[in-house]
Amino acid sequence: MSRPELQAxxxxxxxDTEAKKYTNNTRVQxxxxxxxxxxxxxxxxxxxxxAFLLDIGCxxxxxxxxxxxxxxxxxxxxxxxxxxxxxxEREVEGDLFLQDIGQGFGxxxxxxxxxxxISVLQWLLNAETSHPTSSPPHRLMRFxxxxxxxxxxxxxxxxxxxxxxxxQIQLITSIAQKAGFGGGLVVDYPNSKKARKxxxxxxxxxxxxxxxxxGLEGEEGMDEDEDEKVKFEKRRQRELRREKSGKRKExxxxxxxxxxxxLYRRRGKEDxxxxxxxxxxxxxxxx
Length: 287
Ligand SMILES: C[S@@+](CC[C@H](N)C(=O)[O-])C[C@H]1O[C@@H](n2cnc3c(N)ncnc32)[C@H](O)[C@@H]1O
Fold this sequence. Notes:
Blueprint: H1 10-13, H2 16-24, H3 26-43, E1 52-56, H4 62-69, E2 73-78, H5 81-89, E3 95-98, E4 112-118, H6 122-125, H7 136-150, E5 151-161, H8 166-178, E6 182-188, E7 197-204, H9 224-245, H10 254-266
Parallel strand pairs: 1-2, 1-4, 2-3, 4-5
Antiparallel strand pairs: 5-7, 6-7
Helix pairs in contact: 3-4, 7-8
S-adenosylmethionine is lined by residues 10, 14, 32, 57-59, 62-63, 77-80, 83, 100-102, 118-120, 123, 129.
């Protein structure tokens, strides 16, 4: 089966049926979550400071859910109404916009502290929208130029995508550069067929210092078992990093939970649990 972006324009491919299938697939959920955590790590935001992020091609909110969990405020854009509809149903916290990123963003300059994009950029290289207005290079140029302006200086954007050739990588990186970005490519597990992942790590005004981060390493010519080891190793490294940065998911307080329940009731949600004296109690520490 060929890659989705070769089959149909995105808003057609992600119609009602595919959008549901995609969102409910546990393997997809796991992969999107893993890549979102990695993108956040590459964003390298200062710990314990609030940040407003842009999720480019947010889809049904699988990546957005991780942003919620990690305590970020975010806005998401996507071209597929069916995907956004599911994101709304799933009550993600981010503000959602129906938009073709190939036409560029209209956000105020410097609006975002960072941007992520998971499994989207390859769509700009292939099937266009159902109303194509210009060629992939023109669409990429509009996308990168307006993204650069929407980000504050300094900051970063991390875009995971699936290139199928070096020419595609060359085209994307050269246009990003022309739009004013620094940075480069981070390739994780370059020698594993399954685990290999490509992240375009873009810097605005130096991206908050430092060089392009190194990709995660794996063994050459891995077989199935070794891919399993990579998965385990990735999870272990992620947990270690989260522990080190002190960014464990916080236990929500009583006030936060009551406010959220009130919001759901106002929105007409039916099965909101009643408030009780146990709502939002502190997690017990066991020594
Ligand atoms: C594989 S899904 C990823 C969704 C989301 N990032 C996640 O973590 O689940 C790719 C998404 O890119 C969106 N997309 C593709 N081309 C787009 C475009 N030109 N403008 C906006 N969104 C686009 C699709 O509609 C789809 O929701």
